Batch of 2 targets.
Target 1
Amino acid sequence: MLTLRIVLEGSAPPIWRTMEIDDGIMLDEAGLALQCVMGWEHAHLQAFHSAVPYDREDAGQAITWYEEQSRLEIGVGEPQETTTLGQALAAAGGELYFEYDFGDCWMHKITVEAQRGKAPGEAPYRVVAGQLRAPLEDSGGIHGWQEKLSILQGNPAPEDLEAQDIVAWMHWRGGRWNPLEPAEFRADVADARLAMLAAQFTGDNGLGRWFDTMEPELRRAISVPAAQIGLGLQPGGITIPPWFVDLMRPFAVLTALCDAPVKLSAAGWLPPKIVGELVERSGLDGIDYESGSTKRENIMITVIRLRESAQQMGLLRKAKGVLTATRRGRQLMEDPVALAEYVARKLAQPKAEGPKGRDIDSDSTFAGWFIRAGGFIPDRMQRYTPQPGLFMDKSELLEIFGYWDPNQRCPVNEQSRLPFLQSWYLIEHLLGYRMRAEDMAERIPERLAELSRYLLQG
């Protein structure tokens, strides 16, 4: 294990990090690890150099290691994918230069401070210390960043620039997830990103399963805000909200009512008697503004969605006009916690069946959870309230996926009508009904944020 000191060339005061890293990993992975600790967003190409490539005295002797994409385009350089960090350091005489973004040319000097053996099972890299946040992406290189920092601190802008526009751009480019604090280095975020990198951006919780459906570049892009809002890719010991256990009671009631086979009508609807018992025992009277004492499934959208969800989740089975509880449904209907955990697991099972392997309903639902877990509300009407800063449109995430709005003939945006899974619509509707009945409507966003984090992390 090497202890490296990484300093961003030209920064004053210096922007630096120290980290421990396995010298046996390949340079392409080492570069991603350096991006994580510095705070770069995996948005540009990277290279390692044995000497500063722009120094005329050393340029002719310098060795440069490129990623495969760059080598194919440039036609020169050594491969990062088959060269270890230790081999590169040895070839460079113990000192390397790491370049990120060939446009802004962020150059980092890397020196070895210490070396020790690696313990069994030890992570391949970790942050030790650091100072100051990394410059904003696309800020014009180190001189452009220093100029923008000066303007942010209240100094006048050059004649051809508007200070107000520069400051607004800096806050916009900093992102909703990571407010601009130039003096702050968030070691916790760097460590979280390193953990995702070590797991190859895959995992066993809801977020990890969503990542599993993505291409590597997309995983890396989404991992940055995920770490910034404290999300990981492995189950984190988070417990299911007790109120959600109670909210799932209608699933248990419907399954119990179908313990004995229920014959559906010729049109495929539940008998009114069964619907009436379901509504009464679940405490859902009036949820669909139904009138009269006879409850009919065909005019109660909540009951329709409840039955469809129960069938999709494997709690009920429909065959030859008869609805019956499955073996799993019978096992779960007597255990409220196990039932709620099962429903949550099914909810957080992403789909990837559409064009290019994506499913807009699934991705849009996961994006909504992601936004709620980050402290915002993915409700398009929120922007018209006195607190529009609480609102974040799902398109801000989904545009990264490359989704196209065929109605507007442009990438998805705030005006796009984005769908979501019907089972999630059902959960939101049940919660809204319960909270309003208890005169607690103001706490609906809080509950949805709690549940969203559980679905992603559980």
Target 2
Amino acid sequence: MNSSILAVLYIFFGIAWWGFALTCGFPLTLLLILSRNFRSAFFSWFYTVIFEPSVKTIIDVARKKTFKILEDSIGDRNSLVPLEVLEIGVGQGPNLKFYPENCKLTVLDKNKFFEKFFSKNKNEYPHISYQNTIIQPAERMRGIDDNSFDVVVSTYLHCSCDDSVAVLREVKRVLKPGGKYLFMDHVAFPEGDIGLSIQRFVNPLWKLIFNGYHLDRNVSGKIREAGFSDVHFQKHVIGNVHAYLFRHMVLGIATK
């Protein structure tokens, strides 16, 4: 579909969404604003049951591409030695099927309501040795020792966290020397693109429904400036019309 036509359609979508949120959907909007607990519970349900299944096919292309970067980066490892992995912002566990064999996986998420969805999902992937679930924000990973993990994984984390700089500092702390940080996030449209204006227009509602997720962030610079010894980025653009608001993505790997 022509990008100009698509932008116009999403302008109308944004107007309609705001209209609904302030009229028929106002009770839900008010609950999401007033109750952090309700917002977290609603998001875990909405993301797992409604949103993720609707975009799973197109997002899995990016997930597969991201984990191929990890595979290429650790291809010469001894596969008999377990890979110690920490995934931060694990949600319901949509990345599990992409993990390499012989992983010892610890997961962390600040939203306790995702745990029941993750617990059900993890049983489908016996190739992963599940270690522990930690309910904590990634900015303050208390109880995790320095130099503990071979790999830290995050997808769609920096668009939702409170402080990317603090997250990256913690990632570096818990990684072993030479350890890898694998990341995937959606980013803002380029400056001057009508898509960026649309992202900013719907962003307040998006943050409510998605519990703090921002459509218009750019994390690349923060990762580049975090002090890793080596950083590789790839841009990924989703062509599907349903993913217009989060079509621009960055994925890559950083070495401690």
